[in-house]
Design goal:
About 75% of the residues lie in helices and about 0% in strands. By secondary structure, it is mainly alpha-helical. The two termini are about 40 Å apart.
């Protein structure tokens, strides 16, 4: 192979490697696919460099390839940070981008949930037995009799068992809402609307029969963030459904796979918050000696902390949203 042919064949790969290495925000902004591509190009660059040293020593191509090979090695072979540092870095940088990318769908999710809640409340106010369809006949009869099943939650099981059951159940609901996005978003909408109807119906039913204070005494500490996270999981599902429905000059399967990977990472990173809420719901919510205002402060505080951490700008990196 002569020098001109070597340049003609290799230059496109070398140019691409140069662009990836010089990406705004550093190579950490490339994401999984970008780093995979850079790794493949690096192997090609090293091979071309070995060939250039053997056949075209001292040329501009050899010098360029030496620089590219060194730069690629320094990036791809760098020491990995300890696992805890990697996790902290993910939450500081990538989680924010994933959350912000979900924000448009989150607004839709919140509107649907609130709208369904309002509808459930109106229907229950007009006909209290409508709540039977969503809550169950036994629970409705309890409320009508001046009782509420949440009073028994604190004594039904030890807090540790209760916490485990609660966060496992909530994680299951969240992932089901997310996975429903694969059905063009329809599965997600069904879960979102059903939960909205149930919450609205329950609130109005308790208000109608004078049980609202006891309901709020239980849900105030964990409810705000828990409901928000369910809406966030639903928003992730709606993003997947949107990738299947919308057309953005790419095959739908490719667009869906990209959004599914990003939203799945966000879902996994949200799991610890469900665990925290399970602990709150198991150890704090059932304690009726704690005042409802204090529990409300805890509930609003948890939501505020989550939003602050999820939207705080990165001090050192500016990663591209997937």
């Amino acid at each position: 192979m002569d020098y001109a042919t070597f340049i003609r064949r290799g230059a496109p790969r070398w140019d691409e490697a140069d662009r990836l290495l010089a990406a705004p925000g550093g190579v950490s902004a490339l994401g999984f696919d970008g780093l995979t591509r850079l790794s493949a190009l690096h192997r090609s660059v090293v091979t071309d460099y070995a060939f250039a040293r053997a056949h075209f020593a001292g040329t501009e191509a050899e010098r360029r390839l030496a620089r590219l090979a060194l730069a690629g090695h320094s990036v791809l072979a760098q020491r990995r940070a300890p696992i805890l540092e990697q996790i902290a870095g993910f939450y500081r940088h990538e989680y924010r981008q994933l959350f912000l990318a979900t924000a448009p769908a989150l607004r839709v999710s919140l509107v649907v949930f609130v709208g369904a809640g309002a509808l459930g409340g109106v229907l229950t106010w007009l006909e209290p037995d409508f709540a039977v369809l969503l809550i169950g006949v036994d629970q409705v009869e309890q409320v009508k009799a001046g009782e509420i099943w949440t009073d028994a939650i604190g004594v039904a099981a030890p807090p540790s068992v209760l916490s485990s059951y609660i966060f496992t159940n909530n994680i299951g609901v969240a992932f089901t809402a997310w996975a429903g996005g694969a059905l063009l978003g329809l599965g997600t909408l069904v879960i979102l609307i059903t939960n909205g109807l149930m919450v609205g119906s329950l609130v109005v039913l308790c208000a109608r029969y004078g049980m609202l204070d006891r309901l709020f005494a239980f849900i105030s500490a964990h409810g705000p963030l828990e409901l928000f996270l369910i809406c966030l999981a639903s928003a992730a599902g709606l993003r997947m459904g949107g990738a299947l429905v919308a057309w953005d000059h790419r095959p739908r399967v490719e667009a869906f796979a990209e959004v599914a990977r990003a939203s799945f990472r966000m879902m996994l990173a949200t799991v610890p918050w469900f665990v925290l809420l399970g602990i709150v719901e198991g150890y704090i919510s059932p304690v009726m000696t704690l005042g409802t205002p204090l529990k409300g402060v805890i509930g609003i505080g948890l939501l505020a902390v989550f939003l602050a951490l999820a939207t705080a700008p990165s001090p050192t990196k500016n990663l591209e949203a997937t």
